[in-house]
Write a structure and sequence with these properties.
alpha/beta, Aldehyde Dehydrogenase, Chain A, domain 2, 2 domains, Aldehyde Dehydrogenase, Chain A, domain 1
Length: 484
């Protein structure tokens, strides 16, 4: 990490953060740079005991934090957001080093992540209750919104900053406190956030970061009765398993799980815009986002033109390490398991008759890299259409009419993001209504913003993050019925 020559080297912490103190562990876990597979540092391997200590600290701290004026909680969150922006260069460098995305994308993530703290700083003051018309003349009915309590958060490696702030922002704004377990693959971004939280004035115990092996920490976060809410972003299998455990203590649960986004191009689409949208929706973060286009459905009248144009652009993409800036459009995949999965999806497409237009191979001598790939004539039954690929592979399936496209797109247990391109006004409405997804992008490949609710239907999750709805998951409704 020293090789990054950060402006503020104190942002790179190799200790956990519990109750306002930087904590060592008796054993440590190595953290690798996915572009080189070289070790960039270590983190404490904490377990159940330290996690319980963090939960106890969060419970203690919540007593005062929930009584703080909302305006003051908002002020602290705004300072935290500003500190992220002030230190954007260092945060981006730390992020790219541990996650792999090109530095320009990492800078974009810093701004995106900071925007959630700013947004919820503003929302803190808008947590209003209701006075209801009473059901009896001598009664008065009040509805209060109160913080849920201690929140446990488990976050993934693909957006090491933003997946944290869109949970911590609303949680802290609502008056909750948090114990966070970041991905063990990308802990340094989370720890840098903790440095800035402290600097912004977040009181001890309000935001805690526990690092280490997932299972023992996860066991406490899902089982401890003091944790009242569990929020998770990650794979569907792990999310389902952890959510089921939370039911034993009837925690509130929010889940942001896998997607398998369809991306439909109708004959009447603006070809250039569709290609531009496809590139950003597919190759951002090297295909490793839960809203990444996973299955391309292309109508037969535009199929050849779209395939050729997309293949041309993808062929020109440069891939390599995320630093130095500006030299790569695509970075490495997170680890060798990811490279193997992407390879398996490509082989399966080809075995079912798919034709490789560009790429198709893992790079020899550079273990984390897979060539940006386009495959045409992909079968709708291929693995690539049934599971999230999480890599830089665009597989094109041919379709004939609107009903067929909708049926293909909805044929999934996932329901996070979906996209389509058309210039037909009526079709914009028909198709966006028919798609069984939490989010629909029309003539755009980029839909995420702190202003709008992010989340999925079906097995893609529960709850929404961002927007004015995002704070609701951290609030309980409490009714007071008073006789006068
Ligand atoms: P991904 O495919 O994004 O790596 P995971 O679901 O494996 O998805 O990881 C998302 C988060 O869940 C990470 O922080 C990871 O450490 C955590 N995690 C994975 N397995 C468990 C577990 N058994 N208990 C608690 N957390 C887990």
């Amino acid at each position: 990490m020293d090789s990054l020559s950060l402006t503020r080297s104190d942002l790179h912490r190799q200790k956990a953060y519990i109750d306002g103190a930087w904590v060592e562990g008796s054993t440590r876990i190595a953290v690798l740079n996915p572009a080189t597979h070289e070790q960039i540092g270590t983190i404490p391997n904490l377990g159940a005991l330290e996690t319980e200590t963090a939960v106890a600290a969060a419970e203690r701290a919540q007593v005062a934090w929930k009584c703080e004026l909302a305006k003051e909680r908002g002020r602290i969150l705004r300072r935290w957001s500003q500190l992220m922006l002030d230190n954007a260069g260092d945060l981006a460098a730390i992020l790219t080093q541990e996650q792999g995305k090109p530095l320009s994308e990492a800078k974009g993530e810093v701004a995106y992540a900071a925007s959630f703290l700013e947004w919820f700083a503003e929302e803190a003051r808008r947590i209003d209750g209701e006075i209801l018309a009473p059901h009896q003349a001598d009664k008065r009915l009040y509805v209060h919104k109160v913080p849920v309590g201690v929140v446990a958060a488990i976050t993934p490696w693909n957006f090491p900053l933003a997946m944290i702030t869109r949970k911590a922002g609303p949680a802290l704004a609502a008056g909750c406190t948090m114990v966070l377990k970041p991905s063990e693959l990308t802990p340094y971004s989370a720890l840098a956030l903790a440095v800035l939280a402290e600097e912004a004035g977040v009181p001890n115990g309000v935001f805690n970061v526990v690092t280490g092996d997932a299972a023992p920490i996860g066991d406490v976060l899902t089982d401890d009765t003091r944790v009242r809410k569990f929020t998770f972003t990650g794979s569907t299998a792990v999310g389902k398993m952890l959510a089921a455990r939370c039911m034993d203590t009837v925690k509130r649960v929010s889940l942001e799980l896998g997607g398998n986004a369809p991306f439909i191009i109708f004959d009447d689409a603006d070809l250039d815009k569709a290609v531009e949208g496809a590139l950003i929706a597919k190759f951002r973060n090297t295909g490793q986002t839960c809203v990444c286009a996973n299955r391309f459905y292309v109508q037969s009248g535009i199929y050849e033109k779209f395939a050729a144009a997309l293949a041309g652009k993808v062929k020109a993409m440069r891939f390599g390490p995320g630093i130095p800036i500006g030299e790569a459009d695509c970075g490495p995949l997170i680890d060798t398991k990811a490279v193997e999965k992407v390879g398996a999806h490509v082989s399966d497409c080809v075995a079912r008759g798919g034709q490789l237009l560009v790429g198709g191979r893992a790079l020899e001598g550079a273990p984390g890299f897979f060539e940006p790939t386009v495959i045409s004539e992909v079968s709708a039954n291929s693995m690539l259409c049934r599971e999230e690929t999480f890599g830089p592979v665009a597989g094109l399936v041919r379709f004939e009419d609107e009903d067929e496209a909708i049926a293909l797109a909805n044929c999934s247990r996932a329901g996070l993001a979906s996209y389509f391109f058309t210039r037909d006004y009526g079709r914009v409405h028909r198709v966006s209504e028919a798609l069984d997804y939490g989010m629909v992008g029309v003539n755009t490949g980029i839909i995420s913003t702190e202003v709008a609710p992010f989340g999925g239907v079906k097995e893609s999750g529960l709850g929404r993050e961002g927007s004015r709805h995002g704070i609701e998951d951290y609030l309980e409704i409490k009714m007071v019925c008073a006789a006068i």
